[in-house]
Design goal:
The chain is an alpha+beta fold and about 170 residues long. It has four helices and five strands. The strands form two sheets. Strands 3-5-4 form a three-stranded mixed β-sheet, covered by helices on one side.
Amino acid sequence: GYYGARVEDVQVVPAGRGLVKVVVRVSEGRPVRVSKLVIDGIEAAPEASRRLARPALREGAIFTEGAYDALKAAILGALQETGWAAAEVAQSAVVLPDEGAVEVRYEVRPGLRYRFGPVFVAGTSAISRERIRDEAARDVRTGAFWDESRLARAQARAEEAEKRLQAEIKLRPD
């Protein structure tokens, strides 16, 4: 957020045999603040837009690359949790150091909105596919809009069920 930083003074101080210590005094200058923030294309995904009530970056705030990247990730996450599985977000910033300002723009391309299809289980022989499917279906409903976080939970739940069932099978006495 400090694009006007400059070196005020440099001193080279002897620090022992063959050694020196370099002391640099820096003036940060004034911080660069977000003067304009535009998220183009988000209106095509109103459900995702509502999830951005408290963005990581906002007009008037000191611009940091961390907040700039965090808002891109938040936009993409909101899209992927409301049906836009293949959404893309591009970001750009124009820094105007003489004005102490930065203009930030995000270009959202939601693409097609996806829904979950039927849960299909493959690769298991000792454990009932129906039981694993039932575990996964607690988070993923056929016909519901795509939600990246629900998919991750369903996959974790199915894997945990499979481990639990394998342990039950292995621990049964004769």
